[in-house]
């Protein structure tokens, strides 16, 4: 791409094509709710998964130590 | 033609030079840090080892300090100066003062850099292989600490420069609200002043005199705690400028407006209040700090999730506003209407996406009990490569493609290369960071040159350690390529001719403006006072208890400059102590066992 085309592309993309003007009262960020809700569900799922990684994926740590100390193991 | 141009360099030619100098200093540090990054990646994963393992820690120190101190902070003083001058629409009060703080920072970091790099040359009796955290008893050459002090004082003067501009503007506009970008700069600067008190005390009262030989010993737990007093809020010093870009640039490049100016102010106030009294969450495994104090730090940390989640909402809503104005429809279909081919937008959006992932690993780090699982493992390295290494670094690189033409007056060399660069960074970091996180769960340690041991293997439930190493190395190579593309663009732009078709120097408008924000949000004195009180609550008792137990200058610890001689000395000492201990243990057993048997 030569420089003239480059600059043209730049100035064109810099002025995003605005098809309509949406004001404060018309704007309903429902898509944001969907994305943030999805993120929340992912967090909950990972948090749940964490239990398996920490307590079932490894030998018990703190619990094992206590059992050893009090002579149950 | 040229009269019509309205770029930053046209309105603020003198300031543009300082901002440009700060950017170039930042990019130089990025280049150095990147080189050390790929060296250590290939060394650790055993794909290509050409340095001595003992030099690994010098490499690691250089990688850390150059990237998280010089790259980030030089860049942010550049954009903060841009933000102040642009949003107040006034030149700096005295350009000589502005150059003075820039030069002080440059001299400071150069001195520290010399001390670090001298560690590679055996004939020079100087080293600073103390890693970014410079924990005692690791000891650096005094030049390292002196350089850091000068650098931080430079940033303090920069903050004063921004405050001077605001004071002068306020005298002329007594009834106006603080413009949002200026508000962000001022709150971040106040947080920085408070945070750097910790590291200033650690260096000036303890580490520097100790390194100079004026005092014999230090209390390692005290200097560590003072380091983290600064070490956690410093991450927000890197992050706040990235947030600022997401709030005031991202809506504009998306084709919309910032959803809410008041929410943005609330977020920055919360960071001012909550950033500092959380540092002890880096010390969950430090003995000598009571669990109760750690619990308070954890509570404060969890509260810090609030401003980040508020940011997620506001920033995504602003992007959605842009997408809908561009004709986007549907629940998720609007995402397609966003300008993904614009590297400035794509880079920032991908950085934000990575930050969402980092949010989860951060929550794991923040929980006191779960932290035990990942503390000091490769997981933590994975976490901060998502935060500072992507959310911050990728945002900075992306906005560079907008700022560089603004401060040079030249067109960007190539937008296609820029787009490739930001995508490559995202892909490279996906490989590297996810493998680091998984490695951490297997117990693979961080800060280790060659994490492989005789007679022991890390066991992976899914995949293998070899596969993880391959992903880390592949990621590292992709990130290095991305950096090469970035520098090609920076150099190409610098060599370009003057352009007459630059966009105007503007930032995003707002849907809900400052007139909707309660006046109290602009009361900086109040928020600073609350921040100070919280710091006093969180730190007085832990610090007193540390001093009470270990003394102000601590128990007798030997300074330990990392060099080959000291390693040899240590080996010798360990062997002899070990033999002596074994002998005495043997003697004890000989004495006790017959007694027990009898």
TrEMBL record, chain A:
Keywords: Membrane, Transmembrane, Transmembrane helix. The chain crosses the membrane at residues 30-53. Residues 9-21 have a biased composition (Basic and acidic residues). Residues 1-21 are annotated as: Disordered. This is Ba3-type terminal oxidase subunit CbaD. It comes from Natronorubrum halalkaliphilum.
UniProtKB/TrEMBL annotation, chain B:
The chain crosses the membrane at residues 21-42, 62-85, 97-121, 141-163, 183-207, 227-250, 262-280, 292-316, 344-364, 384-404, 416-436, 472-495, 526-547. Gene3D superfamilies: Cytochrome c oxidase-like, subunit I domain. It is found in: Membrane. One of its GO terms (biological process) is aerobic respiration. GO terms for molecular function: cytochrome-c oxidase activity; heme binding. One of its GO terms (cellular component) is membrane. This is Cytochrome C oxidase subunit I. It comes from Natronorubrum halalkaliphilum.
């Amino acid at each position: 791409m030569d420089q003239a085309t480059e600059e043209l592309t730049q100035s064109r993309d810099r002025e995003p094509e605005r098809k309509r003007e949406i004001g404060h009262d018309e704007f309903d960020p429902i898509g944001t709710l969907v994305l943030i809700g999805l993120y929340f569900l992912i967090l909950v799922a990972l948090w749940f998964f964490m239990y398996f990684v920490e307590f079932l994926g490894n030998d018990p740590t703190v619990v094992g130590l206590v059992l050893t100390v009090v002579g149950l193991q | 033609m040229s009269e019509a141009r309205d770029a930053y360099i046209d309105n603020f030619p003198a300031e543009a030079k300082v901002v440009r100098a700060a950017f170039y200093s930042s990019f130089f540090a990025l280049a150095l840090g990147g080189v050390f990054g790929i060296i250590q990646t290939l060394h650790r994963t055993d794909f290509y080892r050409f340095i001595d393992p003992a030099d690994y820690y010098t490499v690691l120190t250089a990688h850390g300090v150059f990237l998280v101190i010089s790259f980030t902070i030089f860049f942010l003083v550049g954009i903060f100066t841009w933000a102040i001058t642009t949003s107040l629409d006034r030149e700096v009060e005295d350009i000589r003062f502005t150059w003075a703080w820039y030069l002080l920072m440059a001299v400071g970091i150069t001195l520290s850099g010399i001390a670090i790099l001298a560690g590679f040359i055996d004939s020079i009796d100087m080293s600073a292989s103390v890693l970014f955290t410079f924990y005692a008893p690791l000891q650096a050459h005094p030049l390292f600490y002196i350089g850091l002090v000068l650098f931080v004082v430079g940033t303090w003067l920069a903050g004063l420069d921004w405050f001077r501009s605001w004071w002068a503007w306020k005298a002329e506009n007594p009834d106006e609200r603080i413009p949002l970008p200026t508000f962000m700069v001022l709150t971040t600067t106040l947080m920085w002043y408070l945070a750097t008190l910790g590291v200033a005390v650690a260096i000036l009262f303890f580490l520097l005199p100790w390194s100079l030989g004026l005092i014999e010993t230090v209390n390692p737990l005290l200097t560590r705690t003072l380091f983290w007093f600064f070490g956690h809020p410093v991450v927000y010093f890197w992050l706040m400028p990235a947030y600022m870009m997401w709030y005031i640039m991202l809506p504009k490049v998306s084709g919309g407006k910032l959803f809410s100016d008041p929410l943005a102010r609330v977020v920055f106030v919360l960071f001012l209040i909550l950033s500092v009294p959380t540092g002890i969450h880096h010390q969950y495994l430090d003995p000598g700090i009571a669990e109760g104090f750690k619990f308070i730090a954890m509570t404060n940390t969890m509260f810090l999730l609030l401003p980040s989640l508020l940011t997620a909402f506001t920033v995504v809503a602003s992007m959605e506003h842009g997408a809908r104005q561009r004709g986007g429809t549907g629940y998720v279909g609007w995402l397609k209407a966003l300008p993904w081919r614009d590297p400035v937008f794509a880079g920032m959006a991908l950085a934000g996406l990575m930050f969402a992932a980092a949010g989860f690993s951060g929550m794991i780090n923040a929980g006191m009990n779960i932290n035990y699982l990942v503390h000091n493992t490769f997981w933590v390295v994975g976490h901060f490569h998502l935060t500072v290494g992507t959310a911050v670094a990728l945002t900075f690189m992306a906005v560079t493609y907008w700022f560089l033409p603004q401060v040079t007056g030249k067109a960007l060399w190539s937008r296609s290369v820029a787009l490739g660069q930001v995508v490559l960074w995202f892909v490279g970091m996906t490989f590297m960071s996810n493998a680091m996180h998984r490695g951490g769960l297997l117990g693979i340690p961080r800060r280790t040159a060659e994490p492989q041991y005789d007679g022991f293997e890390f066991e992976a439930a899914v995949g293998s350690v070899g596969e993880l190493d391959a992903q880390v190395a592949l990621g590292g190579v992709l990130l290095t390529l991305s950096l090469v593309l970035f520098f090609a663009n920076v150099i190409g732009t610098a060599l370009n001719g003057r352009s007459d078709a630059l966009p105007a120097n503007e930032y995003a408008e707002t849907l809900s403006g400052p007139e909707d924000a309660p006046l109290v949000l602009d009361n900086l004195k109040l928020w600073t006072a609350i921040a100070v009180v919280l710091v006093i609550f969180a730190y007085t008792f832990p610090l007193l208890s540390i001093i009470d137990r270990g003394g102000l200058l601590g128990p007798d610890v030997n300074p330990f400059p990392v060099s080959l001689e000291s390693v040899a000395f240590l080996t010798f000492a360990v062997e002899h102590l070990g033999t002596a201990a074994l002998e005495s243990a043997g003697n004890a057993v000989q004495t006790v066992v017959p007694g027990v048997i009898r």
